[in-house]
Amino acid sequence: MSQNGKSMSIRLSQFAAAVAAFSAFSASAAAAQDAGNFRRWAVSVNATQVFVDEEASDITLGGGPVPGSNISIDDVSSVTVDVGYFFTPNVAVDLFLGVPPTAEIDGAGSIGALGTLAEVDFGPVILSAQYHFNGLGPVHPYLGLGVGRIVFLKKKDRALTDFDIDDSWAPAVQAGVRYDLNPAWMLNADVRYVPFSTDASGSLGGAPVQATLDIKPILANVGLTYRF
Hints:
about 15% helix; mainly beta; 1 helix
């Protein structure tokens, strides 16, 4: 082979190596850019069912205990919203709130004959840290842990007069899954457990009523999520 042929072969080899290196660098840069430009915000609108487990075993009337007394609170439904922000594809913070449903607080046990003691509109506001498990194709399970503020609104007298109930803080644990419909839209389903205690008071026939309510609601949500 001539000297010119060898020189040309060397140049072609160097050019091919340079192209290969540039292609590898470009692919790496594109992957890094895609990883940095993931959709950080997620807004979900949910249909929510609240399953309530409740107990009030220390009801007092006129300062004395009422043996065998308790309360009952019906399950309720509502429309809720999640607003999430992703710091990474796996780690997010989520704010949960919704339209306050109305709960009836009924007498149970020895005070069951009183019927509905009071009504109250309530709504949890929950802030959670979430971890999302990726790498399973369109399915994204996630777990959440946070704190909620249970806010009581529009307290209404029924058998009790001067009814009042205190807002309360509550821990909140969450497990859920999202399913990709396309890059922007997802289906969402999750459950939250938000146990709390609160104090309630009122008057029955002029005698003061006091109670501590232990309430352990489970919130089941099914909704649609938009990522942007």
